Every structure is written in structure tokens, then in C-alpha cells.
TrEMBL record:
Protein name, as recorded: Transposase
Highest taxon in the source lineage: Bacteria
Length: 205
């Protein structure tokens, strides 16, 4: 069964890096740098967690109402328009989600914030596949990179021309916080993340 999970992870890495469908010239021109050893280690870790979850049964996820309490009242000045939450399960996986929508009056600036508890299961392979690779890419129009924000693995992507981007962090190989914005600066996305208490999230069970 572990081989099955590793196979899924390998597919995720291939899709993210895009190596499978590119010519040698395109590969040479690609600015993203992928660390194979880190990717393999992450794949093995997630595969082991998924196998353990299958043996022990689903982990009870945090009540989505507790996750909703971590949603900031505003996103660096953008008022919150809606806050929702839900718990869902399928194929042995249970996921709790809290979501906040933030926007200015005319909707030209918008931020969506999601806090997801995947219970440390194989669902993370889809929610945080970026955590299995290293990317550091920069162009005239923006950037894409993985790294760390505080103690947590992170993914950042931003397009200067369109003023849209994304920041995501993985907390304790269980929680995924994702912030996506349109018509906003990269600094506003980062400021919104700073208003989420990641340490409190890490302590939830």
C-alpha cells in the first residue's frame, strides 16, 4: 500500500515540476530548482503517515468552528464579507475547513483565506503537494518559491502585472493555510497571513 501512496506523490511532483512534458531545451530554460532528495523524503513521510492512518483509522479532525475562530476580522484592511466552515469525509479521509472572504466595496481587491485540517492523512498529497519540492523562480512579472515562514513550510507565488498571488503554509504536516488574492499587493497577502495565529493552530488536536 505504501508503494501506491509513493506513486501518487511521484505523480504530484511530476505535475508540479512539469518535467515530464518538457523538451530538453525547456528544461534547461526552467528557472525552478527542484531538490530531489527533499522531495523523496517528503514523499516517504507522507506515504508513511497515510499508511499509518489506514491502519489506525481516520484521525478526528478539529471542529471547524474552532478553525473559524482563527479567521481574522479583516485582511490587512479589507473587511470580511463572509466566514464559513464545514466538516466532510470520504474514502476514510476526514477534513475540516474554515474559509473567509474579504473584499473592498467595489470588489476590485479580494482575498480568500482557507484553513484546512486534513488530520495528517494522505489528503495532504493533494492539499500541499508543493511541500514535496523546492522551487525558486523569478521573472520580470513575479516569482514562485517554496521555503519557510517561521517554523513552517511555505509556498509563495505572485504576478506583478495582474496583482494576484498565493501564499500557503503547512503546519505540523496536518493543517494547510492558503491565502489567495486578486488586485492586491504581495505585502497585503503576507500581512493577512501574519494575522493568523499559526502557533495556536499547531497546538490544536
Amino acid at each position: 500500500m505504501k508503494l501506491h501512496y509513493i506513486g501518487v506523490c511521484c505523480l504530484a511532483v511530476a505535475l508540479l515540476t512539469g518535467c515530464g512534458g518538457k523538451s530538453e531545451e525547456e528544461k534547461a530554460a526552467e528557472e525552478a530548482k527542484v531538490s530531489v532528495s527533499d522531495a523523496v523524503n517528503s514523499m516517504q513521510q507522507m506515504a508513511e503517515q497515510a499508511e499509518e492512518a489506514e491502519k489506525n483509522g481516520p484521525v478526528e479532525t478539529v471542529d471547524f468552528r474552532a478553525l473559524k475562530e482563527l479567521l481574522p476580522a479583516d485582511a490587512d484592511g479589507l473587511p470580511r464579507k463572509e466566514a464559513t466552515g464545514e466538516k466532510a469525509g470520504a474514502m476514510g479521509f476526514k477534513i475540516s475547513t474554515a474559509s473567509g472572504e474579504y473584499a473592498n466595496a467595489d470588489g476590485t481587491e479580494r482575498i480568500d483565506l482557507d484553513i484546512v485540517d486534513a488530520g495528517g492523512t494522505g489528503a495532504l498529497m493533494g492539499l500541499a503537494a508543493w511541500s514535496m519540492i523546492d522551487v525558486d523562480k523569478e521573472t520580470e512579472n513575479g516569482y514562485e518559491r517554496t521555503g519557510k515562514i517561521g517554523d513552517y513550510k511555505s509556498y509563495e507565488k505572485y504576478d506583478n502585472a495582474n496583482k494576484d498571488g498565493e501564499i500557503a503554509v503547512l503546519v505540523k504536516n496536518r493543517f494547510v493555510v492558503t491565502i489567495k488574492g486578486n488586485g492586491v499587493s504581495a505585502e497585503k497577502l503576507k500581512a493577512t497571513l501574519e494575522d493568523v495565529d499559526l502557533d495556536k493552530l499547531a497546538g490544536m488536536k
